[in-house]
Amino acid sequence: MHYLALVLVLGWLAAGCGETVLTQWPREQIFSKYFRLQEIHLGQSQAEVESIMGPPAVQETADYRGGQYTFYFYRTHNMDYEGSGTVRGGYTPLVFQGGRLVGKGKRDYYRAADRLEEDEAREAPWQKRSW
Questions:
Q1: Where are the beta strands (DSSP E) in 50-111?
Q2: pLDDT tens digit string along 75-128?
Q3: Contact, 47 vs 94, CB < 8 A?
Q4: Among 22, 29, 57, 72, who pairs with 94 as Cys (CB 3.0-4.6 Å)?
Q5: What is the CA radius of gyration of the chain?
């Protein structure tokens, strides 16, 4: 009897799912930014990049040993993973110096910001294993 009730409840839940899949991130916008990113080339001006990509989700300007840089961050992935070139949870950084695009992706961002890639990859204290 309990088995039949369980099957009925699971069937009812499955039927309620429908075909709508809800995601945390707006996939169409992410895919659109990712595909537009392929049209971006080194040497383009900030205005040219913005005309293709739109305004950046995040923009930062800072002085480092290599000079003054402006960073644009565009959401192109749902999360960071090896080989994606993203930082901060799925954002692709674009690196500008003197108003021109001089780098694209995580490696160029870390190089311009005088940071090591390992800085971001360190395990959080609660993720460390005691054994």
A1: 58-64, 67-75, 91-97, 100-104
A2: 887 777 777 788 877 889 999 999 999 999 999 999 999 886 655 555 444 444
A3: no
A4: 72
A5: 21
d(CA 40, CA 85): 15
Q: Which of the four pLDDT bands, split at 50, 70 and 90, describes residue 131? A: very low
Q: How far is Cα 60 from Cα 57, in angstroms, rounded to an integer?
A: 10
Residue 80 structure tokens: 């960071």
Other Cβ atoms closer than 10 A to 54: 13
* Integer Cα distance of 102 and 93 in angstroms: 11
Assess if CATH 3.30.1450 describes domain 42-113: yes
Residue 25: φ, ψ to 5°: -115, 145
Q: Is the separation of the CB atoms in 21 and 71 below 8 Å?
A: no
Which token pair is 20?
Answer: 């709508």
63-68 contact pairs (CB < 8 A, 24+): 64/112, 64/113, 64/114, 65/114, 66/97, 66/112, 66/114, 67/97, 67/98, 68/97
> Does this model's pTM top 0.90?
no
**Which has the closest alpha carbon to 57: 72, 36, 79, 76?**
72
